[in-house]
Design goal:
Elements lengths: L2 H22 L13 E16 L2 E20 L5 E6 L2 H5 L8 H13 L5 E4 L5 E5 L1 H27 L1 H8 L3 H16 L2 H12 L12 E8 L5 E13 L2 E12 L4 E3 L4 E17 L5 E16 L2 E16 L2
Antiparallel strand pairs: 1-2, 1-12, 2-3, 3-4, 4-5, 6-7, 7-8, 8-10, 9-10, 10-11, 11-12
Length: 324
């Protein structure tokens, strides 16, 4: 073999080793954001809820699609990004929008008036959110719309009950206190801290150290919509290649002690737990999940007033991201 041939062979071997190292070695999986970057996170919920109905246990399947558009405003030297996250009002309420009855119509009108909602988050390279701002004004507007709708509904109920019942319900401003309590609960659920938890689930999968095939790590996250829950997921890298990391996920989900909703007239508490299993593909260059499919199976009890009812939720949550 000529000298030039030996040089070419050495170069080819070195290139091959480098390629293999890139596929089988470890990488520091992180979000790599730049000012001006935009990414749409699209979440499709296909969930079936089984709960007591007029004819016994009844099942209802709801499919909903929610989009979050991440618009990177700036990135500092540490990699912390200031990001606007644009969404619509129905995305905040999720599948629960339909359960709001007549209020849903008023909220839909408000949503049209507000257009896109765009809170600002401080997002770290490891996917955790430092802070959220911009939700207080939105929460106040939504709460006031619901206050007026509740007043209308209570007024209709008082007409049906008659003057004596109406006087009893309105005695001492009891109904006003109930409404105030409901509005306060709504404002809390739509506040900056609640949004921090809910958005944190979308980027809370990054490992604490470089990972490669076979690596495993566990992350715990919180969500408050529709109730306070804790998610503990264990991730395992199953394959790498072509700049994509394939990851398997197995986890547990459980309602927090005392989790529920107190709307004054209606108090609901939940004791629910279950499993999450699925897979995800992550773009190693950007850190974004390109596709994720998670199967959920959870059951337990929902208590509403004196009634204690079994409840079961099962289905799939599919997430994909793409450039707008």
């Amino acid at each position: 073999m000529s000298k030039r041939g030996r040089v070419h062979l050495v170069i080819a071997c070195v290139a091959g080793v480098a390629l293999l190292a890139g596929c089988s070695g470890k990488t520091d999986l992180r979000l790599h954001l730049k000012p001006g970057d935009k990414r749409v996170v699209e979440v499709t919920n296909n969930l079936t809820t089984t709960a007591p109905g007029k004819g016994g246990q009844e099942s209802q399947t709801d499919t909903s699609v929610h989009k979050y558009t991440y618009d990177v405003q700036s990135v500092d030297e540490s990699g912390t990004a200031t990001v606007q996250v644009k969404m619509n009002l129905d995305t905040i309420f999720g599948a629960g929008m339909g359960a709001l009855g007549e209020m849903a119509g008023a909220l839909a009108t408000l949503g049209s008036e507000l257009g896109e909602i765009a809170p600002t988050i401080e997002l770290l390279p490891d996917g955790s959110i430092v802070s959220v701002s911009g939700m207080a004004e939105i929460a106040t507007k939504v709460a006031e719309v619901m206050r007026e709708e509740m007043k209308k509904q209570i007024a209709e109920l008082m007409k049906q009950f008659g003057p004596e019942a109406a006087a009893m319900m309105g005695a001492g401003g009891e109904m006003d206190r109930v409404i105030d309590k409901s509005v306060s609960a709504i404002k809390k659920e739509l506040g900056n801290e609640a949004m921090k938890d809910d958005l944190g689930v979308l980027t809370g999968y990054f490992p604490p150290e470089p990972v490669g095939k076979g690596s495993t790590w566990t992350k715990t996250s919180k969500t408050s919509n529709p109730i306070a829950m804790t998610l503990t997921n264990t991730y395992t890298v199953t394959q790498r290649g072509g700049g994509v990391m394939n990851i398997a996920c197995q986890g547990q989900i459980a309602s927090d002690p005392g989790a529920g909703v107190d709307l004054g007239m209606i108090k609901m508490s939940f004791d629910v737990s279950g499993t999450v299993t699925g897979t995800m593909q992550v773009d190693e260059a950007t850190g974004w999940v390109t596709a994720s499919s998670m199967d959920i199976l959870a059951d337990g009890n929902m208590k509403m007033g004196p009634m204690d009812m079994p409840i079961k939720v099962e289905g799939n949550i599919y997430t994909r991201t793409y450039a707008p």
